[in-house]
Amino acid sequence: MVATRRQRAAIPSDEASPLKSLPDPDVLLKTPSRNNKPNTSQESTNNNGTTTNISPNQHDHAHHDHRGCPAHILKDALSESQEDSTPETSSSQLRSCLILTLFLLITIFAHPGSGFNTPTIHTVFYYGWISAVSTGLGVLPLCLISNMKEYYIGVSNAIAAGMMMAASYSLFVEGCGFNDAADDSNWSSGARTALGCALGLMFILGTKSFLERNEDVKLGALSGADTKKILLIVFVMTLHSFSEGVGIGVSFGGEHGQQLGVFISASLAVHNIPEGLAVAIVLLPRKVSKATAALWCVVTSLPQPIMAVPSFMFVHTFLPVLPVGLGFAGGAMMWVAIMELLVEAYEDTDLITTGVASSLALGVMMKIQSSLDDHH
């Protein structure tokens, strides 16, 4: 032992011998570090001077320089740090449940009653409210799903894109075919729809540019790319609800009055359930709780009762701009469906899976809308 220690003492230090300071390739592969800082994990030195690692624990890994770590290690670390925010997630979920309970109480106690053949502001608001609240039911089919793999997240994005493309097509058709005797605009409905589509594209591109310039955007416990994606979806679906709210108010204020208004509201309520499903499919894989996802679904449809009342009160004022609003919402929604959701779905799955999932969702949504139009 004495001879060995003397031999070690005679060996030059790392500063005196550049060759000695070169790291062993196996060690470098196991614990890479861009700054060449000494490894803080446990080590053992053999008699020949070779250094090897002895299974460092997780606590030691926490002190390593993450800039030199492989991508999958950083991804796991980030996911673990997000899962550590349990108190914030729990409080957010509790708050969402309380707000949903308030919405339910409003739905129960705000009923206008029966026996009124002439629509009132109270009646118009309530049926617009029912249409908005029904969007939250879109979360119910996903309540049994806890965790989703990356592949199925891509499939869900493709399904949401297909639903949104079908909704956009329906808005374009409704806007271009708009024909009402009280519409006194000099522009054709097709031209106004095209104008609204161009404005919608400009708006969503401006919104996306704003979100990209602000890297610190946060939404509850979410931040970064997930927050930007969620905000884009919420913006687009909310814009889409403005035109639907105008449609509800105009239907109550038309010549058919209460009967047509109730039917349009009921049709939109059924139509909003798959739209809520499309929103929930995007939110739930991004660590949003089911209660919060249901709340966001309802929030995206709140413009319906809000816009229904002034549209009912000032029918002749809102009729000329209705095709513009339909085109605006359709253009923005189509851009997000194709340029955001489909692209992300393709990155997480493959071309065939993305095409099949989005096409099936598009076909089913178109069939639902066609059935509602036939009954109308």
Automatic annotation (TrEMBL):
Gene Ontology CC, one term: membrane
Location in the cell: Membrane
Keyword Membrane in record: yes
Annotated stretches, region: Disordered: 1-67
Biased composition (Low complexity): 39-57
Segments traversing the membrane: 94-112, 124-144, 151-173, 193-211, 231-254, 260-284, 321-343
Keywords: Membrane, Transmembrane, Transmembrane helix
InterPro entries with a match to the protein in the record: ZIP (IPR003689)
Record membrane topology: Multi-pass membrane protein
UniProt keyword Membrane, yes or no: yes
Top-level taxon in the UniProt lineage: Eukaryota
Protein's UniProt name: Uncharacterized protein
